[in-house]
TrEMBL record:
It comes from Aspergillus turcosus. GO terms for cellular component: plasma membrane. It is found in: Membrane. Keywords: Membrane, Transmembrane, Transmembrane helix, Transport. This is Major facilitator superfamily (MFS) profile domain-containing protein. Its main location: membrane. Residues 1-40, 558-600 are annotated as: Disordered. GO terms for molecular function: transmembrane transporter activity. It comes from the Eukaryota. Residues 1-12 have a biased composition (Polar residues). Residues 21-40 have a biased composition (Basic and acidic residues). CDD domains: MFS_Tpo1_MDR_like (cd17323). Residues 106-550 form the Major facilitator superfamily (MFS) profile domain.
Amino acid sequence: MPAVVHNTNENSGLPGYHGDSAAEEHATSIKDTEPDGGQHMKLEEEITTITEVAARQQDGKTENPGPIPETVEITGVPASAAATTDANIPTGAPYCILPECEKIFIILLVSFAAIISPISSSIYFPALNNIAKDLNVSISLINITITTYLIFQGIAPSFIANFADTHGRRPAYLICFAVYLAANIGLAVQDTYASLLVLRCLQSSGSSGTIALGSAVVADLSTRAERGKYIGYASMGVTLGPALGPIIGGLLDHYLGWRAVFWFLVVFSGVLGAVIAIVLPETCRAVVGNGSVPAARWNRSGWEILGQKWGARKQNPEPDYHTIEKGRRRPNPFASALIATDKEVLLILIYGSLLYSGYMAVLSTLTSQLQSRFHFNSIQIGLCYLPVGIGSLTSRWTVGRILDWNFRREAQRQGLPIEKNRQQDIQHFNIEVARLAVTIPLVYCACLCIIAYGWVMEYKTALAGPVVMLFFTGHLTSGAFSSLSTLIVDLNRQSPATAVAANNLFRCLLGAGAVAIANPLIQRIGIGWTATLVAFLWVVFSPCMWAVFRWGHQWREEERSSNEKGANPLENLSKHVGEAPSPKEVPEDIPSGPAEQEKK
C-alpha cells in the first residue's frame, strides 16, 4: 500500500498562495526515477523540500510556484515499515528519567534541608532561661518569640512555595538559605529583645519554606503509587529536628552559652546551603519536565555546569518538552489560601492542623514538665526528646510502606492499572479511600497514647512510662501527618509546593495558639486532663476525615464537571489538578530544541 503524506502547512490557505508545482511533480515521480531503496531514503528529503518552499513563499521569495498537493503519494515505502514505525512510538514518557538511587539521594538531601525549620524552633528551648537573664526580660516575653516564630513559619511558605512552582525549586532553596543564614548571624551578635524578636521572625521566614519545597521535590520525582515511601524519606528531617534540637541546644547552652546555638546554625546552614548549590538539580516539572529538559544555565547546579551531567540524561539525550507541566506564569502569594476554597482540601487542612496543634502542645510543654517533676537539667531534658524523634523516624518506613501497599491494593480493586515510573490518572480513582484508610486508624491509636502519656506524667510514675508513650505518640502522629500531606500533594499535582504551604499555614497558625495556651491550661487543670482534652478534640473533629473518605471523590467529580462547564470562577486558582492534563493544557510555547531553551 502506498504511504500517504498529508500537507498540514497552514500557509496553504493564505490568499495568493499556490504552493510549488515543481515540488509536487518531483515528489510524485519518485517511483519512476529511483529504486526502492532510494525512494525510502528520499522520503524525508521530499517532505522537507515542500516545507521549505512554503517557508520561502511566506517570506515573499517564491512567486506563484503552483499548488502544493493536499496529499502526496509515495509508493516506495513498504507498508510494513510504516507499521513498524508507529508501533515503536512510545505510548507515554516516563514520569521521571532519574534512576532510583539518584531519586533517593535528592530526596534525602532536601530532607536534611528541611531540618533547619524544626531544629531552629526546638534548639531554642533549653536556652530560654539564659537568654531572658542576659537580655533582662521575663520568660513570658521570651515565649512571645516562640509564638511569632510559629506565625511566620505558617505565613512565609505561601510566598516562597508559589514562587517555586513557577520558577523552580533551586532558586527558591537558595533564597531560603540566604535569608536564614543572614538571620542567624544577626541573632548570634544581637543584644536587645527587639532585635531578637525581629530576627527570629526573619529566621522563621527563611527556614520554613524548606518543608514545602521538600514535599514538592517528592511530587516532582515520584508517582502516586510510590509517593508514600518517598514522603517518608522527605519527612525524616522534619521529624528528627524536634528531637535533635533540644539535645544540641542543651549541650551548647550548658558549655558555651546561648550565642553558640546561633553560631552552630550559621555553620550548619552555610555548609548545607553550599551542598545544595553545588549538587541539587532543578526538579520542577514546569521547568525541566520529567528531567529530560535542561534547565536554563543560571538554574543549573554547579555539578551540571562543570559538565558532569546526570547519567539518565546521557542515556536519554533527547529532551521531551511535552512532559513540561503548564502552570501559572506569575507567582501568586495568595494561592495557598485559595487552595483552601475547595471543601475537600479545607477539611483535610482543618483536621491536620488540629492534629499538629496537639502534637506541638506536647513538645512545647515537655521541657517544663520534666524540669518540675523530675528536676532534670537541660542536657537530660534534651535526651528525653529522643523517643519522639525515634518514633517519628520509624514511622517513615512503616507507615510509608503501608501507604504504598494500600494504594496498590485499592488500585487493583478499582481497576486502575499501575505501571512503574508512570503517573496514574486519578480522575476516576478514589484516592481518598486509599490514603485515609491508613490515616484514620493511626489517629484513633494516637488518641489513646496521648491520654496515657498525660496521666502517667500526672501521677509521676517512673520515667519509662512517659518515654514509652512519647515514642508511640510520635510514631502514630507522624504517620498521620505523612498520609495527610501525601493526600494533599496527590490532589494538587501541578502546585505541590503551594499545597504543602497551605497545609503549613493552617498548622502553624493553629499550633501557635496551642503553644500559647498549653502551659496556662496545664497549670489550671493538670497535664492529665489537658492530654485528655487534646484526644477529645481529635475524636470530635474526626468526622472531617470520614466525610472526605465517604464523599471526597464525589466532590472532586462534581467540581471537575462544573469547571468544564465554566461555572467556577476560581477554576484556575483552586481546582484540583490531580487528574492528567487534557491535550489543551499542553504548553503552547514548547521550545523547538535545547538551543531555544538555553535562550530562555
